[in-house]
Amino acid sequence: MKSVHRLFLSASIFAVAIAGPAFAGEDTDTINLFKHAGRSSDYFNTAYGYAVFPNIGKAGIVVGGARGEGHTYVHGSRTGATVMNQLSIGFQLGGEDYSEIIFFKDKSAYESFTSGNFEFDANASVTAITANASASAGTTGAEGSASGGQNDAATGGGYYKGMAVFTVAKGGLMYAATIAGQKFDFTPGK
User: From CA 118, how far away is CA 125, in angstroms rounded?
Assistant: First the structure.
């Protein structure tokens, strides 16, 4: 039984590792997508800054993971590079690819995110911007959303501890009832 779990973990890590580079996008394209995606567009006018991840690859078979690389911006200027890693365990099968943006309400929220290793706690939530409905619960919080199209953000969202998170699904199919947590590493100046 132990070797079966190792096989699933290895397969999940491999799937995530190859999914990220295969669909990598440019920051500019992803930023423009969120600027024209309903609810998230308003945040560009009021947020202190944001972190953008053009592509996050996620895969899992019982044990799963996700990874994405991006950059942070303050008032439109790049300030550094950031990497998101996620490990999940629970009933899950498949893989998906999505873009994510995290808005920082003020300098304090930005500094919290960029202070080293930042991790979302159980009360963080995500607003999905796609033509689908979804729900999940985990250490990243309980989430649920539904929307009419790529340019219409789901109702909801808002800042939690100075941060608001939006995602856009890019492709894939995944069923998951998992416990997961997103952890971010920041490197200034990249």
Answer: 15
Q: How many domains would you assign to the chain?
A: 1
CA angle 123, 73, 130 (to 5 degrees): 55
If DSSP codes are grouped into helix, strand and coil, which group holds residue 7?
helix
**Phi and psi at residue 161, to the nearest 5°:** 50, 40
Amino acid at 77: S
| Domain containing residue 54 | 2-188
Measuring CA to CA, which residue among 169, 70, 171 is closest to residue 129?
Answer: 169
pLDDT in tens, 17-28: 444 443 334 899
Q: What percent of the chain has pLDDT over 90?
A: 32
Using DSSP's 3-state secondary structure scheme, residue 57 falls into: strand
Residue in 169, 102, 98, 99 with CA at minimum distance from that of residue 130? 169
pLDDT tens digits, one per residue of 153-180: 333 458 888 999 888 888 777 766 655 6
Would the pTM of this model clear 0.85, i.e. be above it? Answer: no
